[in-house]
UniProtKB/TrEMBL annotation, chain A:
Pfam families: SUFBD_core. One of its GO terms (biological process) is iron-sulfur cluster assembly. Residues 26-169 form the SUF system FeS cluster assembly SufBD core domain. PANTHER family: PROTEIN ABCI7, CHLOROPLASTIC. It comes from the Bacteria. This is SUF system FeS cluster assembly SufBD core domain-containing protein. InterPro entries: Fe-S_cluster_assembly_SufBD, SUF_FeS_clus_asmbl_SufBD_core, SUF_FeS_clus_asmbl_SufBD_sf. SUPFAM superfamilies: Stabilizer of iron transporter SufD.
UniProtKB/TrEMBL annotation, chain B:
The keyword ATP-binding applies. The lineage of its organism: Bacteria, Candidatus Kaiseribacteriota. It comes from Candidatus Kaiserbacteria bacterium GW2011_GWA2_49_19. This is Fe-S cluster assembly ATP-binding protein. Pfam families: ABC_tran. InterPro entries: AAA+_ATPase, ABC_transporter-like_ATP-bd, ABC_transporter-like_CS, FeS-cluster_ATPase_SufC, P-loop_NTPase.
């Protein structure tokens, strides 16, 4: 693991909409720390992280801070791990006092394709204001035998069925990314 | 000529918990205890039986579900020895299964799945063209009174019981099937939907496809002609006959056969 984390630091202005895209395609070990501060009213931020890897380790930390009224954030982390790839995620959303009508959501969903792949998720919410909406969730699952059997009964070999499930799992999410990142991800999806 | 031949088939269920295989059975429990069945090309056989008699396990075993372990016996379709083939190879040999509880596949539409699947089959329909195939998907959906949106939504995701069953028949109608096993397609269907589904099955029959219909009820036989009816009980076929047998069961139940 590289010692020095990559830092992404974003400040969202009043009524601004920001997308913070993070992509890891197993190109090497990475440690990424993203911090998004919303201290002006009406700001909105989407922190999108997608990982798709066969090897290597990702350590990802995201922190979204609501420090103004009517701020909106979505943190969505979605990934597929094969081989011996590892992804550890810590996500934090803080809603500070005075951030009335803040709306925050934090989610991680990962699929493991091999018994040696691992995904960890620690989502945290710290809410210090009452009039807010906030939610979080995390799931880590395997591609199920029943799903693979179903697709096999339509003539799809196992590898092909897995590929279809992975693409299905990620495709809608990819379209939320800016063009440059989406192209990279789609190229990687072609290779699996 | 491809005949489906099942000889002295003994099957145990290895890991329970999946609804399609009737949760509640212990691991390694014997479910099928010596099934013999010959389904000649183009014939329609019906398998009836009380709950837990092994009907779904038989269908799942023909397609080699990983939980169904063949302990003894063989399954063959023409020259293909299904009992030593993988599920996807069996499907591509033209033996297809409509599942009792079809799986939801998130992010994958039926159009998506069918256009990928059909390329895998070596024997395609005559003059196969993908553009025509896409039209066929739409036409078949229309024949089943399914709105177009079902063709682009995630397959079976949030579908009602009836919609799932229609989706199964749609897929079986479009892939190059030679022999289909249809597992409880009639449960969860209202009478109008059942008629539409039966119409598709009749079309398959007219194409010379061999058909096994697994069911609890006689009612689907109002619209489909069966060549033979078998009663399965405790993993064995205990009685075989004509459609009259199915009518008799509807009237008198299984007890007469089971107690015998």
């Amino acid at each position: 693991m590289t010692a020095k984390p990559e830092i992404i630091d974003v400040r969202v202005s009043a009524d601004e909409m920001r997308v913070v895209p993070i992509v890891w395609l197993g190109e090497g070990d990475r440690h990424i720390k993203a911090r998004v501060l919303m201290n002006a009213p009406g700001g909105s931020a989407k922190v999108l992280c997608l990982f798709l890897a066969k090897q290597g380790t990702l350590k990802l930390e995201t922190e979204v801070i609501h420090d103004a009224p009517n701020t909106f954030s979505r943190t969505l982390v979605k990934g597929v791990l094969d081989g011996n790839a590892v992804a550890n995620y810590e996500g934090l959303v803080t809603i500070r006092k005075g951030s009335k009508n803040a709306d925050a959501d934090l989610n991680e969903h990962a699929i493991l394709l091999s018994p040696n792949a691992r995904a960890g998720a620690i989502p945290r919410l710290e809410v210090l204001e009452n009039e807010v909406k906030a939610g979080h969730g995390a799931t880590v699952g395997k591609v199920g035998e029943n799903e693979l059997f179903y697709l096999a009964t339509r003539g799809l070999p196992r590898a092909e069925a897995k590929r279809l499930i992975v693409r299905g799992f990620l495709s809608a999410f990819v379209s939320e990314f800016p063009k440059e990142e989406a192209e990279k991800i789609n190229a990687a999806l072609e290779r699996i | 000529m491809s005949t489906l031949t099942i000889k002295n088939l003994h099957v145990t269920l290895e890991s329970p918990g999946t609804t399609a295989l009737r949760a509640g059975y212990g691991a390694g429990k014997p479910i099928l205890n010596g099934i013999n069945l010959t389904l000649p090309k183009g014939k329609t056989h019906v398998i009836m039986g009380p709950n837990g008699s092994g009907k779904s396990t038989l269908g799942n075993t023909i397609l080699r579900h990983p939980n169904c372990k063949i302990v003894k016996g063989t399954i063959a379709f023409g020259k293909n020895k299904l009992s030593s083939m993988k599920t996807d190879e069996i499907a591509r040999a033209g033996v297809l299964l409509a599942l009792q509880h079809p799986q939801a596949v998130s992010g994958v539409s039926v159009t998506n799945l069918l256009t990928i699947a059909v390329r895998k089959f070596s024997e395609k329909p005559k003059n196969f063209k993908m553009a025509h195939f896409r039209n066929d998907i739409k036409d078949t959906a229309k024949a089943l009174h399914m709105p177009d949106e079902f063709l682009s939504r995630s397959l079976n995701d949030g579908f009602s019981g009836g919609e799932k069953k229609k989706m199964e028949i749609l897929q079986l109608s479009l892939l190059p099937a030679k022999c289909v096993i249809i597992d409880e397609i009639d449960s969860g269907l209202d009478i109008d939907a059942l008629k539409l589904v039966a119409k598709q099955i009749t079309k398959l029959r007219a194409r010379g496809v061999s058909i096994i219909i697994i069911t609890h009820y006689n009612r689907i036989l109002r619209w489909i002609k069966a060549d033979r009816v078998h009663i399965l009980h405790k993993g064995k076929i205990i009685e075989s006959g004509t459609e009259a047998l199915a009518k008799d069961i509807e009237k008198n139940g299984y007890s007469e056969y089971i107690d015998a």
